[in-house]
Amino acid sequence: MATWIDYLIVFLRIVRFCVDYVVDLIFSLIYDRRPKAVIPPIDKPFLAYSGTKLAKLIRTKQLTSEEVTRAFAERCRQINSILNAIVDERFDDAIQDAKKVDEFLATTDMSESELAASKPFLGVPFTSKESTEAEGMSFTFGIISRKIQDMKGAVDSNVVNLLKQRGGILIAVTNVPELNLWCETRNNVFGQTVNCYDSRRTTGGSSGGEATLLAACGSAIGIGTDVGGSTRMPAYYCGIYGHKPTADLISTKGLTFRAGNETTTMVAAGPMSRHAEDLVPFLDVLVGENRSKLKLNDADLLGDDGVLLFPSGPREAPYHYESFLRPYNFAYWGIFNALKIPATNVPMGFSKNGLPIGLQVVAGPYNDHLCLAVARELEKEFGGWVPPFISN
What we know:
Blueprint: H1 4-31, H2 51-59, H3 65-83, E1 86-89, H4 91-107, H5 112-118, E2 125-129, H6 144-148, H7 158-165, E3 169-174, E4 186-187, E5 191-192, H8 208-215, E6 221-226, H9 232-238, E7 241-244, E8 268-273, H10 279-287, E9 308-311, H11 331-339, E10 343-350, E11 356-362, H12 368-382, H13 388-391
Parallel strand pairs: 2-3, 2-6
Antiparallel strand pairs: 1-3, 4-5, 6-8, 7-8, 7-10, 9-11, 10-11
Helix pairs in contact: 3-4, 7-10, 8-9
Organism: Nesidiocoris tenuis
Pfam family, one: Amidase
GO cellular component, one term: endomembrane system
């Protein structure tokens, strides 16, 4: 016999259906008549390559780092007027860094395998969130008072420093919501960032600038941070890979106001990329001295351990401002921050509206390798990232 709780559940489901219907109707009436911005196609095929593949081509001198860096800088200039993803750049300095890489490669006695082991991303351009400190770059968190003071990074955050040490070349920093505390990338300093698959839609937050820039081939790889889905939500909305590592593996020094002294935290920096093959070497760089706690190169990756395949979200990327009426959808991502376990967003195609959809691969603590191995297999079966200039 049905109880009052059963009736209440049915009633709440009806209310939720009605609310969703009205919200969808209102926002579709507002936005559907507005034209979508068109993302231009790339003019150099290597702009769509993985960071791992680019590094190999640079090491073997099939491409120069200068050539690659110039191409990404030009691509950023081409698309940023549409996306509003980049808030500060160092293109000229990055090109000089790339020239030094090419000079090093012309004179070094190191073998290709030695270079791959010690500097897996040598000469590869990357980007990072504006809220992750990088020396000489904007460091405002989208706060007007910090912009007025012209706040710049004094030193590199630990994660930026680690990627530079392993050969990466920082070319720009990307937009975030104010203090990283919202699920849309918009603030009163730099404005609103848009989704490269549909400019009427959000990129998510707080790593939304990273996600949309990467998906549109404006960077090879990017550093995200995740305290409530801030890496995985934008990765989902923009059709790329984003991994939230096991908690406390990666130093938080330089992530917004953090000094890296936390004994435990839900925030974690992590890799963002278009291709799953970048996730393992990228995470290996970011964990630094803690890499021994993971089994990133375990030959028997899956063994008897299990993973959870969990929806990346209840719906595709919403229209701008729609998240105000559905604020608790972030729980699809935030629950795994609270549990402090690893989770990876995997793109899985497109909705009927032509927007990315995906799922999360979740594993137990320190089983990040399971998430990444499954992501690789799903990429093989379902194709992974699809460029916005092809999908549209």
